[in-house]
Amino acid sequence: MMITVPDRRSSEMLLAEYVKSDNLREHCYMVAKAMEKSAEAAGVEESERELWWTAGLLHDLDWEQYPEQHPHQATSQILPPLGYPQIVIDAILAHAPERTGREPVTSLECNLFACDELSGFMKAVSLMRPNGFTDMEPKSVIKKMKDKRFAATVSRSDIRKGADLVNRDLAEQISFLIEVFS
User: Fold this and answer.
1) pLDDT, greater one: 91 or 3
2) Phi, psi at 135, each rounded to 5°
């Protein structure tokens, strides 16, 4: 059975309506791109890859306007009336298990969890480098993870858990995302 999702333009317009910060919007697009490549790498049928991209794009939809309710506001009030499928809603819930109680289980959910925090952390690392993601190496990202003051709000344990959830060692997951973002 094919699950339909609103088209990309509709999702992009929705993101623009709720997310005004350029940095957060860029993060959402980065995660969408990572999710699209993750779906491809996982052998997900092309017809389902749009679900992965959409979950990545909209995972922080309510973060700016409803930080205390994130991601509940998006998953209960914003997305369902607009026709977003339960599989996307469930993935968004599972990307924040400490807030929702829903642990990532499906491949889509696990990959969203694995791409979210790490993408943000790697973006911060790229800003410290003259060439950004170009010529970035996993060992430099791992080294920065040891500095607790650098990108202090990013959970290192969630980054490690994410790599485990997608059955990659941390260096492999970092390398995969370097390729996506380069």
Assistant:
1) 91
2) 65, 15
Cα distances from 162 to residues 1, 50, 61, 106, in angstroms, run 28, 21, 21, 13
The model's pLDDT over 81-140, given as tens digits with 9 standing for 90+, comes to 999 999 999 999 999 999 999 999 999 999 999 999 999 999 999 999 999 999 999 999
Cβ atoms < 10 Å from Cβ of 87: 17
Q: Is residue 130 part of a domain?
A: yes
On whether residue 166 sits in a domain, the answer given is: yes
Residue 162 lies in a domain: yes
Structural domains of the chain, count: 1
DSSP, collapsed to helix, strand or coil, labels residue 30 as helix
For 165-168, the CB contacts below 8 A with 24+ separation are 165/104, 165/110, 165/111, 165/113, 165/114, 166/38, 166/110, 166/111, 166/114, 168/114
Please report whether residue 133 resides in a domain.
yes
Contact 96, 71 (CB under 8 A): yes
Q: To which residue do tokens 């026709």 refer?
A: 83
Residue type, 151: A
Average pLDDT over every residue of 58-85: 98
Work out the percent of the chain whose per-residue pLDDT is above 70.
99
Instruction: Give me the domain span that covers residue 89.
Output: 8-181
Q: For residue 157, what is the domain's CATH number?
A: 1.10.3210
